Every structure is written in C-alpha cells, then in structure tokens.
C-alpha cells in the first residue's frame, strides 16, 4: 500500500485478509513518522507486522566506492528497536536498481548475483520465513 494511514489503507486492512505487513521506509526522520503510523495502524487492526525494511540505506559512488548515508544511517533500525520489530534488510540507493526496473528487467532477474539482488532476495526469504503456515 502507499504510505499513510488514511481511509483507503484502513479499509483495505480491515476488509481483505492480510497474513502480514512489511513496513518499508527510508531512514530519514519525516519518512519514519509515516512508518511508525503504519506499524501502529496494522497492530490496531490485528495485522502482524513482519518487520521493517530500510530503503535507500546507503549510496556507494560508482567511481570511488565511497559510501554516503544520504537519508541518515540507522533511522529504521532505531524505529524497529522502539517498536520491538525486526529489520528484514536494507536496500541500497543504487542507479542499477532504477535502471533495471525501468527497463522491465529487475535486478533480481537481470543481475541475480549482484549485491543489490542479494539484498532483495534476503528480504524475500525473511518475509517468507515469518509468514504463517497456511492450513492444509
């Protein structure tokens, strides 16, 4: 769902069976406010929050490899601790992610051995591991 806790998000979470929610946020303060509201909303409507993902966690210069935390370093980690939730993983801010998605060949398909693809796959595995087992 898009960010927020408005009528649409509330209606969807109350009227459609949801096995769990994943909260995705950049580590900057303003985004964390929405992430906190989202996690609290899901808890109020009894949807388990499976964990948090820190998006655009770090930018690595393609030329010199210097890493910069453009949006902050540990905002999502700090929020997860406060809420008693797990971090499912970090997605870097990388031009390859945007380019491969824009071309219709996401990085997990076009470059499955890349660090970016591995980050997505790790998160996917963590989500699956936390989902309840469906009844047989």
Please, could you describe this protein's structure?
The chain has 136 residues and is an alpha/beta fold. The chain has helices at 7-15, 29-44, 75-83, 95-102, 107-110, 115-130, and strands spanning 21-25, 49-60, 67-68, 87-93. Strands 1, 2, 3 and 4 form a four-stranded mixed beta sheet that branches.
Q: What does the secondary structure layout of this molecule look like, with pairings?
A:
Layout: H1 7-15, E1 21-25, H2 29-44, E2 49-60, E3 67-68, H3 75-83, E4 87-93, H4 95-102, H5 107-110, H6 115-130
Parallel strand pairs: 1-2, 2-4
Antiparallel strand pairs: 2-3
List keywords for this structure.
single chain, 136 residues, alpha/beta, 4 strands, 19% strand, globular
Tell me, what's the shape?
globular
Please report which band the strand proportion falls in: under 5%, 5-15%, 15-25%, 25-35%, 35-45% or over 45%. 15-25%
The main pleated sheet reads as: 4 strands, mixed
Poorly predicted ranges: none
Mean pLDDT: 91
Q: What's the helix-strand series?
A: HEHEEHEHHH
* Number of separate strands: 4
Instruction: Report helical residue fraction.
Output: 40-55%
Over all CA atoms, what is the radius of gyration? 16 Å
Q: Which structural class should the secondary elements be placed in?
A: alpha/beta
Q: What is the distance, rounded to the nearest whole angstrom, between the alpha carbons of the first and last residues?
A: 28 Å
Tally of helical segments: 6
């Amino acid at each position: 769902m898009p960010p927020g806790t408005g009528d649409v998000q509330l209606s969807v979470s109350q009227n459609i069976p949801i096995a769990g929610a994943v909260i995705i946020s950049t580590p900057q303060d303003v985004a964390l406010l929405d992430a906190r509201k989202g996690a609290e909303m899901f808890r109020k409507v009894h949807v388990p929050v499976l964990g948090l993902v820190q998006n655009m966690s770090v930018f690595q210069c393609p030329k010199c490899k210097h890493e910069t935390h453009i949006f902050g370093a540990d905002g999502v980690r700090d929020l997860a601790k406060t809420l008693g939730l797990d971090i499912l993983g970090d997605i870097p801010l990388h031009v390859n992610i945007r380019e491969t998605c824009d071309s219709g060949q996401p990085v997990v398909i076009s470059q499955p051995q890349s660090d970016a693809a591995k980050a997505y796959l790790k998160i996917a595995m963590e989500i699956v591991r936390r989902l309840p087992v469906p009844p047989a």
